[in-house]
Amino acid sequence: MIVSIHAVKFNHLRHHKHCLSEEDYEGKSAKMTWYGAILYGPIHFFLIHKVTFQLGNAQYKKNLLLELMSICIFVGIVFYLQLNFLIYHISVMLIGEFLMAFFAVWTVHHHTHEHPQFARTQRSHWKNKITFNMFYHLEHHLFPAVPTIKLPELAKRIDQAFPKMEKKKTF
After folding, report:
1. Does residue 168 share a domain with residue 90?
2. Domain match, 108 and 122 both
3. 3-state SS of 108-120?
4. Cross-strand bridge partners of residue 60
5. Can you give the pTM of this predicted structure?
6. Cβ of 122: how many Cβ atoms within 10 Å?
7. In whole angstroms, what is the distance from residue 33 CA to residue 148 CA?
């Protein structure tokens, strides 16, 4: 990631507290079209930092500035020394960050506004394999303290306990 991880943390905790409301800046792209979410990506990249600086406490602001300065120094050194393999890596990370509003928000939250806590999920074994189990979002919202590595097991337990529960698919 080439963003302040404290900005991600701050906005993600707000996302869980204010899921898909006006206070949820992370979830903003869920209300857009799929291509709107992709085009919004670069704005999302900057907005999470702005929101953290405006609404975060002193510790968040300090960590945000420290992380952004570290990123800028690292990127500056890489470009100054023309380390092409790292320039490529930075470019790929930046493109990935610009797609975050689509992949991390829109895909799991579009058309879930009536019940935002019931985010989309993925149950296909092969789809979960190729996406590294990153689309167990319903499970993540129902039990946010469960580590990502345990979400497939949690999904099985939810399916056993609530076999008739409607689950919207991610894709």
Report:
1. no
2. no
3. HHCCCCCCCCCCC
4. none
5. 0.90
6. 23
7. 27
